[in-house]
Design brief:
With 107 residues, this protein is mainly β. The strands form 4 sheets. Strands 1-6-5 form a 3-stranded antiparallel beta sheet, with no helix packed on it. A 3-stranded antiparallel beta sheet has the order 2-9-10, with no helix packed on it. Strands 3-8 form a two-stranded antiparallel sheet.
Length: 107
């Protein structure tokens, strides 16, 4: 619960925003990502009082997904990376890519 990362909407001039990067595919297109829960926002003196947006204890993002004709959702795999900097109350770790593979099924 003490760990946090920065939002995907973090403004320039401050900490490194989280980035969601999907591998290219002709099986689908993805719309704009949004956070399920809004980040906690506060002005940070370290960044010249810039409004800094943090997600504590994890974050979930979603985006609309449009499948290409003939693609079965049961066979779909979405691969990509989340580029994020993880911090605790004392320090921040170097930002890095966290690879993932998402699969979907019947809903």
């Amino acid at each position: 619960p003490d760990l946090y990362t920065y939002s995907i909407t973090q403004k320039r001039g401050g900490p490194i925003p989280t980035k969601l990067k999907l591998d290219k595919s002709d099986m689908f297109t993805v719309g704009e990502f949004l956070a399920v829960d809004a980040p906690k926002s506060a002005n940070e003196p370290v960044f010249d009082n810039l409004l800094v947006e943090k997600h504590f204890g994890g974050a979930i993002w979603y985006a609309p997904l449009l499948l290409a004709d003939g693609v079965s959702i049961e066979d779909l795999q979405i691969k990509g990376k989340i580029y994020a900097q993880i911090c605790d109350p004392s320090n921040c770790f170097p930002p890095r890519d966290f690879p993932f593979t998402a699969t979907l099924g019947k809903s």
